[in-house]
Fold this sequence. Notes:
The complex is a heterotrimer of chains A (201), B (84) and C (249). Chain B has one helix spanning 10-17; strands at residues 4-5, 25-28, 34-36, 41-43, 49-52, 59-66, 69-73, 77-81.
Amino acid sequence: MGRISRGFTGRRRTSVDPARVPPGQYVTDDFPVLSAGPTPHHPLDWWSFTIQGAVDEPVSWSWQEFQALPSETVTKDIHCVTKWSKLDTVWTGVSLDTLLDGVETSAEYVMASSDGGYTTNLPLEDITGGKAWVAYAYDGEPLEPEHGGPARLLVPHLYFWKSAKWVRGIELRTEDEPGFWEGYGYHNYGDPWLEQRYQGD
Amino acid sequence: MDALDGNAIAGLLFDVFGAEMTTATGVCGSCGASAVFAELTVYPRAPGTVARCRSCETVLMVFVARSEIVCADLRGLARFEPVS
Amino acid sequence: MARAALPRRLSWQLARVVELVDETSRTQSIVLEPPEWPGHRAGQHVDVRLTAEDGYQAERSYSIASAPEDDHLVLTVERLDDGEVSPYLAGELRPGDELELRGPIGGYFVWEAQLGGPLLLLAGGSGIVPLRAMLRHRAATGSTIAARLLYSSKSLADVIYRNELESLAADDEVDVRFTLTREQPEGWRGYRGRIDEELLRDIAWPPEERPLVYICGPTAFVEVAASVLVQLGHDAGRIKTERFGPTGR
Lengths: 201, 84, 249
């Protein structure tokens, strides 16, 4: 550890209920932008969200069709593996329960994929039961491209790399396979409360 | 968030390779483009650091720091030549 | 001649802050005395690391503003409103404090007189810092290599090292041109607006002169400048670029 820099505190908030802060995390009021690649920019009429894989038939929605689906506004805490947490973030989007309603599958896993090639894997049960959304608004405003707009996956109970920006669909799978960061050494599951940052944690 | 270039990770590259690497040349395993590491497109703020080919955007190198260890994945490079 | 490629360890050291100098209302130069400084080349940078009492750390890179020939190591930091590190460095830091840094780092974006010229330097905002080190080095070695600087800033008040650059220009040492992109003073006869083909056509040497080009600043500035120069016929192999992010690097 380096020598302490007199008077340096960074931008972190310290007056927070510790019960809301997973181990090793620092709470911030900012919303840092972290990316592994360029921000995609595509017209909305080009966008679609597709559920495919271990299903009888893929299901797909255009942007207009997606906007017509029942949506929810939720307030959640989010935790990035790079150690910042942001509390009480407000998102609007469509629950994965709504999207998966009527979809029959024997799959136990999903791979979410995004414009630009990003992927992340999750157990199917971690995106159902009110735990995940495809979010298209943040804080009441359309989601900005640098934060994953037009739409991103939102899975707040896991580290935020699982909340894939620029999400375009999920593939239901009977076998698990690591996504982008999981393939580079990050934890396959990513529970912030168990501090599952890296493989082997 | 705009991408930076290999200059921004000169220190990280030194940690990993044990030498100054911004003038090392890498060849993209996808499109064959050759460039010095300083000229790669770099995304430094992520769960890891990602260096992409400036021509085709293919991921060339990924660095993940895990406490005192840095894991370097160079599979995107067809080859690289260190500084002469 | 084969040189032993023994890796020099890039170690952290604690440099004492000697002095703080206001350059503009939002930039400050930090004059430092690192205990074991091996010397550096103009254009290189250092990594700076700050540690809070609870162990929280933040690390950033800053270009070295001083020439290898100068007495002290100098960094120039622009204080970003939403920055995490820059408000500390250019706001809280005091003479006598210790700053943890390592360097010098970088072997690509460097210039020394023996590399020749003519030298074309294009700076956007705080991108001026490593280029200023190059110009100071050039002056310190008494080099007569032709040098031209185009410096893009939002306004005259944002021009870092203004007096120093205007002196270089007045002494006919360096051809210094400014472009002000947001606000120009009354009677301003310099360039206006962002860098573009027309501006570069005006100030760049013709490609036949084969200048060594160094471009530094925000990514958008660097990419426009580099692509225009290549379109104008300059050899991409003689253009070196360094992109700064909004938060230092």
